[in-house]
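Lab notebook, bench 4. The sequencing result for the construct came back, and we need a structural model before the next group meeting so we can plan mutations. Quick request posted to the team channel:

Model the 3D structure of this chain.
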Amino acid sequence: MTSPAEEENEVEGTGAEDASGPGRRLTDAEFAEIRELYELGKAGLSELATTYKISRQTLSRRFKDVGAKKGSRAHELAAAAKKAAVAATGVSAGATIERFADRRAEWIEETRMNGYQALKEARLIGRKIMSENLRATPPRPMAHIDDDLKALARYNKLLIDNIAASIELLQANDHVDETTLPSLSIEDLTDDDILEHHKNIGALPEDATVADMLAENDEDGEEGSP
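Done. Here's the predicted structure in token form:
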């Protein structure tokens, strides 16, 4: 696997060859998918250029325009794996485990929020593809955007798989945040509360007092005694 520097040198050295080749414009969905693979370190420049049939020079320029760097986000999955390993193996020091437990909820929430935002962006790309196709003059058939939608579907699946892997590594489904649990408050009823209840169900008249209620209870007790 070539390093980012080697890939850039390779691109500069073959610029004339790439420039003379047939031009191809990446769709938003394709570039989003390519950038995700590149920044996570799952594919290099040459591999992506071959797979998506675009010149390495053009792809390198697109990456530079958005500040994308190979493997710049690889630490995200590595960090999630490391954090989960600490909890799963139980071999780390107690302080490390406590630190993991203290920040686990934060990492889980961060993973979910980042994942939600990424999926939202993918959804917006899909809407843009559909909207542009519908507004085209003359009207174009849906088959015209099949490749765009397929690329978007692959990108969406990549996001979902990455989110699911991170959630699993953090054991998010087994995590219970005690701060979100509902509290149960138990209080003793006062005589006034009991009197109000008896009035509401018609057991006592509206003008009854606590003394009347207690007296009636005493009478019921005497009748029930042998």
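Residues 85-170 form one domain.
Will bring this to the meeting.
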